[in-house]
């Protein structure tokens, strides 16, 4: 039986994210490079929170403020804290930067790398369990390892004649014989926290890099008579780190392939050409939806059932209802399209635009911070910004809501069953009542009553459509 006291210890997580990542050939810190539209560090942090740790710390250094902002953009500030590594003197030094927070803690500490974004919560949970149950008494340290056909660039796991852990040798410090070893250190560890920081005090920087290696700690623990365990994992892709842009592109391809496969097999989504469709792992897509080639679905987009997304369209953090058709080359970002709508081709929805049930926008129509009411239509060549449009209203070609006066944005409100004639300019702030009509080319600068027909520039009322009463309009001469 395992020692239950080890499993009852509090669990903490420390993520190392202070390095520059010189092999990325970038001015941007490595952990800020994006995979699936999110910084690498965010993937690791999100996975770590699934372990429900008592505390989660991220070690920051190079571009620390930017790394901190990226993490807080995704995680609640109460779930994560930050430690600064003043100088980048190696992974051992990075862990040591958190000494004051953990050295007296009788806990288990999981140490992760901020550039290993594919690791799953289930894998980390299995690592912790193996750590606690090793030899029925728990280990001082457990190292996650994997065997690779090409281990170049990784630290090698050196075992003794009985197969037990002996030491980790970094690539640059390895002998020719050691470089033939195919079992590598994944950079993911589980430690008895007090024993970690005790051993860390003895780490030296007498290596080719002149750095303090965290990888020296397991050997120091073993020499001190402590148990060091190895948790060998069988999925090399899951623990693959990102050291250059080629590896980043490989992970992007792997993640996209997994996402598309999951949606086809588990959700009943049809992809006409899976290899040429780009779907965020966070997206949710309903059954019997058809996705055509060269479609980009990004962020936390939600798409209902029975939809058709035609080629060339891009959806970012969009919410799409059931039975929606999005025609070719549309861009929808941070907006909602309700059931039964038709969008495009070549339409643009942004800024929390909303299309109510059964509404339609056609080619070269842009909606920005606008609600288009149920059954309403804007079929072509129209800009509707900062507007609220009622039900069953028709917006003619070339209509523009003139929402900006050079200093401020203003709103336009259009009622139900309104007909806005082609090339009408609605100079906000302005309101158009129910059942009103504007003539082609009108310039509306004042509110329009319900049932009124207006024409001209500036637009003037010429008829009450409910009573049939006509009104003469002076020429202005």
Could you explain the architecture of this structure?
This protein has 2 domains: 4-233, Alpha-Beta Complex (Spore Coat Polysaccharide Biosynthesis Protein SpsA, Chain A); 245-464, UDP N-Acetylglucosamine Acyltransferase, domain 1 (3 Solenoid). Helices cover 18% and strands 31% of the residues. It has 9 helices and 40 strands. A hairpin with a 5-residue loop joins strand 8 and strand 9 (165-169). Helix 7 (193-200) crosses helix 8 (216-223). The longest helix is centred in the middle third of the chain and has 23 residues, at 245-267. The termini are far apart.
Give a nutshell description of this structure.
The protein has 477 residues and is of the alpha/beta class. The protein has 9 helices and 40 strands.
SSE layout and pairing:
Blueprint: H1 4-7, E1 10-17, E2 34-35, E3 38-39, H2 40-49, E4 55-60, H3 64-72, E5 81-84, H4 91-96, H5 99-102, E6 107-113, H6 121-133, E7 141-147, E8 156-159, E9 165-169, E10 183-192, H7 193-200, H8 216-223, E11 228-233, H9 245-267, E12 270-271, E13 278-279, E14 284-285, E15 290-291, E16 296-298, E17 302-303, E18 308-309, E19 314-316, E20 319-320, E21 325-326, E22 331-333, E23 336-337, E24 342-343, E25 348-350, E26 354-355, E27 360-368, E28 371-372, E29 377-385, E30 387-389, E31 394-395, E32 400-402, E33 412-414, E34 419-420, E35 425-427, E36 430-432, E37 437-438, E38 443-444, E39 452-455, E40 460-464
Parallel strand pairs: 1-4, 1-6, 4-5, 7-11, 12-15, 13-16, 14-17, 15-18, 16-19, 17-20, 18-21, 19-22, 20-23, 21-24, 22-25, 23-26, 24-27, 25-27, 26-28, 27-29, 28-30, 29-31, 30-33, 31-34, 32-35, 33-36, 34-37, 35-38, 37-39
Antiparallel strand pairs: 2-3, 6-10, 7-10, 8-9, 39-40
Helix pairs in contact: 7-8
